[in-house]
């Protein structure tokens, strides 16, 4: 069903199509689809030609200007008062809206690239058509071509809508934000901003934000390691406890724990913040029991940084352990029993079996999932944002608190009072680099481990 | 022999006790949330475990409030989640099926680009999404649906992992018998993948009920509380209106309980698929 790609040279070169093809082939190099139309392949011909005409129309009406303005993001950078001759009055002229210019510029670049891709695809299909005509082979009819969309070209039919969606709502915004990192878009240049190269990167890595970036990065990594390790380790232990011999109603026990994870996080975490509040029920309870004399400030604005960080990790265990319990249960059920039996015969105690056989096996199977969890924890917005909001405050930081991760700091830089949009874009790129490096290294290592 | 039995019995009891203690510890905050939703309170603060006075007024309050149009929020969210469920499931299943069962030129590039895009923090795209939707005048529930559906083309991993497990020989047999690939998809692929369709649909359905960030950015600019979805509405109730609405804090808890119950039940139904998805992904590496 899936043919291997043939390594034979193509049946005809583009040069041959150009030189020996009839007029319709020659014209098709400029107006896609003409050769197809001549052979009554209406659907393909009309869509190719129509798309090209639409593209040219868009390019001449707005595409060229959108691409042109991309070079300086609009000429007027500041608010000015100009004299309007037509009305004979002074008018305040707002700067050009660079946000919109940049957005449509990036969109225009994507459209141009898409058009180039389409053009290459059309050339390829032109060559196939040429070979069919030249060799007197059967030329597909319009009906056959349409039918192939449900058969040999089903992937086009299935993928076209998803790809448009991904382009519009993921690729475009991502490219837009990446380009924003190279501008001076901040609270001082809220409307008209310009390209400034790597200046924003400099601000984050060595400038006024460096004093926040490196401590926050450090805590983000500490947090990601602690959160991943604790939930995984205790999740495995919990799964083994539930799976151990003699425990009945295993499904029910699991469900009891999973309830915590199933509750929407903005409910469970916002309420947890209330639960741990200075005057919240936990402090009240502990004081009533006489365990503490003063309420503990777990996560408040003036809490101790270390206390708050430990609290965050513990609360994350509350939410995360049920998930890793679920996943490791599936693995424990499928573990080969022979090694365990053999070890028992040789007199290993349950702890030794766990330490030397069960746990390494689970770790081995779970390694890729753990890497994903680690990256997920670097980007774990909900736990920090909903639970502490970045608190306790830290006066040495710029727009961040002691428990803020890079992502929550990114959010603050955009929606907080500092409005450092370009710095937030830089952070996004740096987070991407960290995640990509970690997964690349880890996958390399696990793959080597597997092969070895 | 008896000592051996006694030892095993003791171990079993110890394990049961430990399990019960842990379960109690885990569920304690959840139980407290439910209890707090029944507590009579006008200080905006719940500082006790067991309510001093039980009342249903929080539930009647949140359902009849004009300041917090809870019924509108439920209606909006239901609308968004149903439309997005249908469209997203269609998109996700199409992509997953094509990437798993069909071979075509841009398959590898698509997988690689999806991997790279997934490593950018989602928040990065929020400002851009806001301006995209604003320039098309779509800062409303329709725009929110577009955002959810637009992202569905990248959430194919679990469904693809499922399709990968169906043996290819079935497809080949059908093709030898003269079926087109579309017929194979329709009459063999889809019927065999009912569980994963259910899972994908439920995931897509749940997302709008729990997302307070994207919905907040897209819907907040209208300033009209009647256009909010439930997650943003409730979140906004305790955050944006801090101070003035602390008296409604117990209403907020009641609202949370109302939506958390169905979502929790749906998730518990889904947990089996969830595990299969994760471990299937883990196998592939």
Automatic annotation (TrEMBL), chain B:
Tree of life domain: Bacteria
Keyword Transport part of the UniProt annotation: yes
Its membrane topology: Multi-pass membrane protein
Transmembrane portions of the chain: 12-35, 78-99, 111-133, 139-159, 196-219, 248-269
Localisation: Cell membrane
Keyword Translocase: no
GO BP term (any one): maltodextrin transmembrane transport
GO molecular function, one term: ABC-type maltose transporter activity
One Gene Ontology term, aspect cellular component: plasma membrane
ABC transmembrane type-1 domain mapped to chain residues: 74-270
Assigned keywords, A-Z: Cell membrane, Membrane, Sugar transport, Transmembrane, Transmembrane helix, Transport
InterPro entries assigned to the protein according to its UniProt record, in alphabetical order: BP-dep_ABC_trans_perm (IPR050901), MetI-like (IPR000515), MetI-like_sf (IPR035906)
Similarity remark: Belongs to the binding-protein-dependent transport system permease family. MalFG subfamily.
Protein name: Maltose ABC transporter, permease
């Amino acid at each position: 069903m899936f043919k291997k790609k043939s390594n034979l040279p193509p049946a005809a070169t583009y040069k041959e199509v150009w030189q020996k093809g009839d007029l319709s082939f020659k014209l098709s190099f400029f107006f896609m689809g003409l050769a197809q139309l001549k052979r009554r392949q209406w659907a393909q011909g009309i869509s190719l030609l129509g798309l090209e005409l639409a593209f040219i129309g868009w390019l001449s009406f707005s595409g060229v200007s959108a691409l042109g303005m991309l070079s300086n993001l609009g000429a007027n950078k500041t608010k000015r008062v100009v004299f309007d001759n037509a009305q004979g009055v002074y008018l305040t002229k707002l700067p050009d809206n660079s946000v919109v210019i940049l957005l449509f510029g990036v969109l225009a670049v994507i459209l141009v690239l898409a058009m180039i891709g389409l053009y290459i695809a059309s050339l390829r299909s032109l060559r196939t058509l040429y070979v069919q005509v030249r060799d007197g082979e059967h030329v597909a009819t319009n009906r056959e071509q349409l039918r192939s969309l449900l058969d040999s070209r089903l992937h086009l039919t299935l993928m076209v809508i998803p790809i448009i969606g991904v382009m519009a709502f993921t690729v475009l915004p991502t490219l837009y934000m990446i380009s924003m990192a190279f501008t001076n878009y901040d609270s001082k240049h809220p409307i008209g901003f310009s390209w400034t190269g790597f200046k924003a990167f400099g601000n984050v890595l060595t400038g006024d934000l460096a004093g926040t970036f490196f401590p926050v990065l450090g805590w983000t990594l500490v947090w990601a390691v602690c959160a991943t390790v604790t939930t995984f380790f205790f999740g495995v232990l919990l799964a083994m406890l539930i799976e151990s011999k003699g425990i009945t109603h295993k499904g029910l026990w699991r469900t009891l724990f999973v309830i915590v994870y199933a509750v929407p996080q903005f409910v469970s975490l916002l309420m947890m913040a209330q639960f741990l509040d200075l005057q919240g029920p936990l402090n009240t309870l502990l004081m009533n029991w006489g365990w503490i004399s003063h309420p503990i400030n777990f996560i408040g604005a003036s809490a101790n940084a270390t206390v708050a960080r430990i609290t965050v990790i513990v609360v994350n265990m509350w939410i995360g352990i049920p998930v890793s319990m679920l996943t490791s249960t599936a693995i424990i059920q499928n573990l080969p029993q022979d090694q365990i039996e053999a070890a028992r015969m040789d007199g290993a105690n349950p702890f030794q079996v766990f330490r030397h056989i069960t746990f390494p096996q689970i770790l081995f199977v779970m390694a890729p999932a753990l890497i994903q969890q680690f990256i997920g924890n670097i980007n774990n917005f909900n736990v920090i944002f909903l639970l502490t909001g970045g608190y306790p405050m830290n006066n040495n930081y710029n727009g961040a608190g002691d428990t803020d991760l890079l992502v929550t700091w990114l959010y603050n830089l955009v929606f907080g009072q500092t409005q450092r949009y370009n710095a937030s874009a830089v952070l996004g790129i740096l987070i991407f680099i960290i995640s990509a490096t970690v997964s690349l290294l880890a996958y390399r290592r696990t793959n080597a481990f597997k092969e070895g | 022999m008896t000592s051996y039995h006694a030892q095993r019995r003791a171990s079993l009891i110890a394990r049961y006790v430990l399990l019960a203690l842990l379960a109690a510890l885990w569920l304690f905050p959840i139980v407290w949330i439910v209890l707090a939703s029944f507590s009579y309170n006008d200080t905006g603060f719940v500082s006790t475990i067991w309510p001093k006075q039980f009342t249903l007024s929080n539930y009647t309050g949140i359902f009849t409030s004009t300041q917090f149009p809870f019924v509108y929020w439920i209606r909006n969210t239901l609308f968004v989640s149903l439309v997005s469920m249908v469209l997203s499931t269609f998109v996700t299943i199409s992509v997953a099926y094509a990437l798993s069962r069909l071979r075509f030129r841009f398959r590898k590039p698509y997988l690689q680009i999806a991997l790279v895009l997934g490593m950018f923090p989602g928040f990065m795209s929020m400002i851009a999404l806001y301006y995209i939707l604003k320039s098309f005048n779509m800062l409303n529930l329709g725009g929110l649906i577009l955002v959810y559906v637009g992202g569905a083309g990248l959430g194919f991993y679990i469904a693809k992992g499922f399709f990968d497990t169906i043996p290819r020989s079935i497809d080949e047999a059908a093709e030898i018998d003269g079926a087109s690939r579309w017929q194979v998809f329709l009459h063999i692929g889809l019927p065999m993948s009912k569980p994963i369709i259910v899972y994908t649909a439920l995931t897509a359905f749940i997302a709008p009920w729990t997302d307070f960030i994207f919905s907040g950015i897209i819907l907040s600019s209208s300033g009209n509380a009647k256009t909010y979805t439930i997650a943003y509405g409730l979140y906004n109730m305790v955050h944006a209106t801090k101070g003035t609405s602390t008296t409604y804090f117990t209403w907020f808890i009641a609202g949370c309980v109302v939506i958390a119950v169905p979502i929790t039940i749906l998730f518990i139904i889904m947990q089996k698929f969830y595990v299969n998805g994760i471990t299937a992904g883990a196998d592939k590496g």
